[in-house]
């Protein structure tokens, strides 16, 4: 088992990474807590709930799998279940699942009785990003993650064994966020990933622990400096401004989060090269994405003008001005106000089948 500490203004919390460590989660969670309450989804319930719910007195709430569960109605159901369970302020919520469960359970923990503890037990590679840093929330029809709170977990317990049952598409989706952490912070790590020459699902347990710890360490360093996203934490949104817009325009769940972010990263690299008149190996990275099965072009059914308008509604936008995280070079991100015309021109060049390179 490996571990690292995430430091924030409110204190620090541990992240444990290992194989089979979900079975000893109660040893790893520092109490004392009056009770635990597990929130999970239908898919994870069948695979892993029994290994977590060792004490049958621990109550659970199961939500449908998928992005649709990050909704007002599902949040209301969760809160009703917590209230009916008569949890007090010394209770602790266990978020067992991927990013959707973590965001929903975390927001429930942040708002139940004005805030109780919660522990993340992620079951996807994508959640190496969302399980750390304290962002919780739900979606609104006008945009993704627009309603939420900053609420740090008490601990994160990352059992790599849980990743072995993921479909290939979910592996790739999570790998996209690992790549993002390398692009914004660590060129040597990016080179290691590109040179590994195999799909992420073929990584050994040791290699998985290595990339997860690397990714979480990048995020932890940024969160330590800027917990509330007033400055450099926005760098973690590299690729996400367009990615979120694509998800919203397609309809949540049509494309995985990591796939949408992959397209957003290629677009941001292209925009960076144009904006800073530099070369960022965009063609090499795009070719690598295609080799490992990540999409690189905007779906042709989407309207570019609508995508631009959607991007202007992003939480990072100011005064309806398009703001994107770009790279001066690999490992050196910067937030930039981008002219609509340039953004639109390169977006049109990024459309599937446009012949763009």
CATH domain topology of the largest domain: Dehydroquinate synthase-like, alpha domain
What overall geometry do the principal axes of the alpha carbons give? Answer: globular
For the secondary structure, the number of strands is: 11
Lateral strand order in the biggest sheet: 1-2-9-6-5-3-4
* CATH architecture name of the largest domain: Up-down Bundle
Overall number of structural domains: 2
Mean pLDDT: 94
Reading the helices and strands in chain order gives: EEHEHEHEHEHEEEHHHHHHHEEH
Our count of helices gives 13
Span between termini: 43 Å
> Helicity level, as a percent range?
40-55%
- β-sheet strand percentage: 15-25%
CATH homologous superfamily placement of the largest domain: Dehydroquinate synthase-like - alpha domain
CATH level-1 class of the largest domain: Mainly Alpha
Radius of gyration, taken over Cα atoms and rounded to an integer in Å = 20 Å
User: What structural class do the secondary elements suggest?
Assistant: alpha/beta
Based on the structure, what is the oligomeric state of the protein chains?
Answer: single chain
Low-confidence stretches: none
Largest sheet, if any?
Answer: 7 strands, mixed
Domain 3-dehydroquinate synthase N-terminal: 61-172
Binding site for NAD(+): 65-70, 99-103, 123-124, 135, 144, 162-165
Family: Belongs to the sugar phosphate cyclases superfamily. Dehydroquinate synthase family.
Function: Catalyzes the conversion of 3-deoxy-D-arabino-heptulosonate 7-phosphate (DAHP) to dehydroquinate (DHQ).
Task: Please provide a written account of the structure.
This is 3-dehydroquinate synthase. Belongs to the sugar phosphate cyclases superfamily. Dehydroquinate synthase family. It is found in: Cytoplasm. This protein has 357 residues and is an alpha/beta fold. It folds into 2 domains: 2-165, Rossmann fold (3-Layer(aba) Sandwich); 168-349, Up-down Bundle (Dehydroquinate synthase-like, alpha domain). The protein contains 13 helices and 11 strands. The chain has helices at residues 25-28, 42-52, 72-84, 99-111, 127-130, 168-185, 187-195, 205-225, 240-250, 257-276, 282-291, 304-312, 340-349; strands at 2-8, 11-18, 36-41, 59-63, 92-97, 117-122, 135-140, 143-150, 155-159, 323-329, 332-337. It has a 7-stranded mixed sheet with strand order 1-2-9-6-5-3-4, with helices on both faces. Strands 7-8 form a two-stranded antiparallel ribbon. Strands 10-11 form a two-stranded antiparallel sheet. Strand 1 (2-8) and strand 2 form a beta hairpin. Helix 6 runs parallel beside helix 10 (257-276), helix 9 packs across helix 12 (304-312) and helix 10 runs antiparallel to helix 11 (282-291). The termini are far apart. The relative contact order is 0.11. The model has no long low-confidence stretch (mean pLDDT 94).
